[in-house]
Design goal:
About 70% of the residues lie in helices and about 0% in strands. It is mainly α. The protein is elongated, with a radius of gyration of 29 Å.
Length: about 425
């Protein structure tokens, strides 16, 4: 039994332990066949000791992909009984220099290139399943508890990242980077909803990087929309507006769905919060024009921009512009958002956006002196068990507004203020051990 020093050297050059090499081979086999071979460090050890010289075809293909070689000979593998050839792993260009040998060497070089080009650790069925899982998670994100979704998002991202470490055709690599980008977008939303801005920013930068590598303008434009959203909740309204404008430049072209309407709505809301009411109203009008010509969104759920959400953004914007006329328009817009959310399918109903619309209505009613109406809208929100970070921010602002208004000393208002203080002392949502805090 002769040790396989070639395989041992290749593994050490990668600085992998035997367990790490075995895990990579398992991932390759699973991606290619759907089977989980459950290989471990002992299997790699047996290969390196020469106890196994010619594993089955699936395992040989996986080893070639993991170590980035074309043939088994380059790994020191050979069928039992076949004599070892020191030249077996050398380039064919080392053949003798006569004409016949030179032609043979050139032919072998082309054959090696063809085998190298054909090698891949994924197939269309694997990518199709990733697409289906991503679409399901994007749809479920708006209505299912994060504690149920976060582990699956992380697991799917890990699988995609591992495949990207291997070899695939250029089109498949691009597809994997697009998947990695959208999945990082889900992770970014998780962090933002939990109130962890640094993590959200890191995930968003990863989305931008994946979009640039994959040359996917819609993914990049969506990343800008998320960065604009994060900047808004950080209170950096000028940057939020600039990022939304940058996203519109990135997302031009066919197939952008409701993305333009989303970006214009984000821009309008940020401009209004920054005190530029005239520009905000102009962007708001353009946002509604953009919806009238929007195509179907590439992905559903959290990556789409439903009409109800646009009306919710409209209500927030009009409230920030201020003035009696805009307050009445805000009441109409937020009421329309609530109506659309309540009429829609339960699986498409975002509790966070519905809460936001109710709180905007409460704020608008307070601005109109309708304390009873404001109380009714607040009750619709205060009964929830959990809130996203953005809803907690809205509640605190509303509590401050109530405490400074002319009605602050009335018994119902005092009770509402106490209730707001109680619920905003809770953490935003329930954190999970699978997402960094």
């Amino acid at each position: 039994m002769m040790a396989n020093e070639i395989l041992r050297r290749l593994r050490r050059e990668q600085r992998w332990t035997q367990a790490q090499a075995a895990q990579r081979v398992c991932t390759q086999v699973q991606a290619a066949t759907g089977r989980d071979p459950e290989l471990d460090a002992n299997w790699i050890s047996r290969l390196e000791r020469g106890a196994i010289t010619w594993p089955s075809g699936d395992y040989r293909a996986a080893l070639c992909a993991v170590f980035g070689v074309v043939s088994e000979a380059e790994l020191g593998l050979q069928p039992k009984g076949e004599p070892t050839s020191p030249a077996s792993a050398q380039d064919a260009s080392a053949a003798p220099g006569n004409e016949a040998s030179s032609l043979q060497a050139d032919t072998e070089l082309s054959a090696r290139l063809a085998r190298h080009a054909a090698a891949t650790n994924v197939n269309e069925l694997v990518l199709e399943q990733f697409d289906a899982d991503l679409e399901r998670l994007a749809r479920d994100f708006v209505s299912r508890p994060l504690t149920l979704l976060v582990p699956e998002i992380r697991s799917l991202r890990t699988d995609v990242f591992r495949l990207l470490e291997g070899r695939q055709h250029p089109g498949q690599t691009r597809h994997l980077y697009v998947l990695a980008g959208w999945l990082s977008g889900l992770a970014a939303h998780v962090s933002l909803d939990l109130g962890h801005q640094p993590s959200a920013s890191t995930h968003a930068r990863t989305v931008v990087q994946c979009a640039e590598i994959a040359e996917h303008p819609r993914l990049r434009a969506w990343a800008r929309s998320f960065q604009s959203l994060a900047a808004y909740w950080k209170g950096d309204y000028r940057r939020a507006a600039d990022l939304a404008r940058a996203g519109r430049e990135d997302g031009r072209g066919p197939g952008s769905g409701t993305l333009t309407a989303r970006l214009l709505s984000l821009e309008a809301r940020a401009l209004a919060a920054d005190g530029d009411g005239r520009s905000a109203l102009r962007s708001l009008a353009l946002a509604h024009d953009a919806r009238s010509s929007a195509e179907r969104d590439e992905l559903p759920g959290v990556f789409a921009f439903p009409e109800a959400k646009q009306w919710a953004y409209t209500g927030t914007t009009l409230l920030a512009v201020d003035g009696d006329e805009q307050v009445q328009r805000a009441i109409a817009a937020s009421s329309r958002a609530v109506e659309l959310y309540q009429a829609g399918a339960e699986g498409d109903r975002s509790s966070g956006d519905l809460h936001a619309a109710h709180l905007d209505l409460a704020t608008a009613y307070l601005a109109s002196g309708e304390v009873e109406g404001a109380g009714t809208e607040l009750v619709a929100v205060l009964g929830a068990d959990q809130y996203t970070a953005s809803i907690t921010i809205r509640l605190r602002k509303l509590g401050t507004l109530i405490g400074s208004g002319p009605y602050r000393d009335s018994r119902p208002v005092i009770d509402l203020r106490d209730h707001i203080r109680e619920v905003t002392d809770r953490p935003a949502l329930v954190s999970t051990p699978t997402e960094p805090r």
